[in-house]
Amino acid sequence: MKYLHALNKIEGVGAQKMRTLLNGFDNAENVWRAGLPDLEKILGNNKLSEKIFYEKQKINPDAEWEKLKKENINIVEFTNPAYPLLLKQIHNPPFIIYTRGKLNFNESPAISIVGSRKFSAYGEQAATAFSRDLAKVGFTVVSGLALGIDAFAHRGALEANGKTIAVLGSSIDDDNIYPRANFSLAKEIIESGGLLMSDYSPETSATTMTFPARNRLIAGLSLGTLIIEAGEKSGALITARMALESNREVFAIPGSIFSPSSCGTNNLIKSGAKLVTGVQDILEELNFSHTAEIKQAVLKIPENKEEEILLTILSDIPMHIDTIAKHSDLGMSIISSTLSMMEIKGWAKNIGGQNYIVV
Question: What are the DSSP E strand ranges found in 69-220?
Answer without folding.
Answer: 74-77, 96-101, 110-115, 140-143, 164-167, 195-198
